[in-house]
Amino acid sequence: xxxxxxxxxxxxxxxxxxxxxxxxxxxxxxxxxxxxxxxxxxxxxxxxxxxxxxxxxxxxxxxxxxxxxxxxxxxxxxxxxxxxxxxxxxxxxxxxxxxxxxxxxxxxxxxxxxxxxxxxxxxxxxxxxxxxxxxxxxxxxxxxxxxxxxxxxxxxxxxxxxxxxxxxxxxxxxxxxxxxxxxxxxxxxxxxxxxxxxxxxxxxxxxxxxxxxxxxxxxxxxxxxxxxxxxxxxxxxxxxxxxxxxx
Length: 247
Description:
eight-stranded parallel β-barrel, globular
């Protein structure tokens, strides 16, 4: 099955290169934050400090994107966290990290983030893209979407999404509400069907991340990989290996 094709995304700029189009393209590695699991019940500066510490570690290790996914924070607290995250990226020499906000288009615009990621409870993807095509927001803004089926991936591409997250590929507590693991075979099917970048998410770790890239994913995204205790050198080595998989 092949989905609708377009030479340009509906956001008005060329889409990010997919793994299928450019086999020598460096793979994207994304850290998705989850402050609730770091400091359960804490909505204070203590939680922000924990999340920023993980962001700092991920940036230093070489991630390409950080998706700030703190759905229970107020707009004010989320704005403050995002601003501090942007300062963290600026503090690391030669770091070209894109900060993406989950769900909150308003906060992403206010803070100057690289884009917004939309889920099932977010504003409709088509509506955000229509708003963006009308000349609102930065021209090169990333507008991504979470997908849990081949049909959903095709719909996101036809709508004009810049990229998609597909999963859960493997079992993981945070993605169990979205159904059983899709597996690497289904991921490969989605990657073959769409031309926008597909980022694999859900249970991705040091062992199975290569399976996602071999399936054709343009990159991988993870929560626990970056939030569980690990040696900085080990995390850096993992990210470098994933990056080199596309070279």
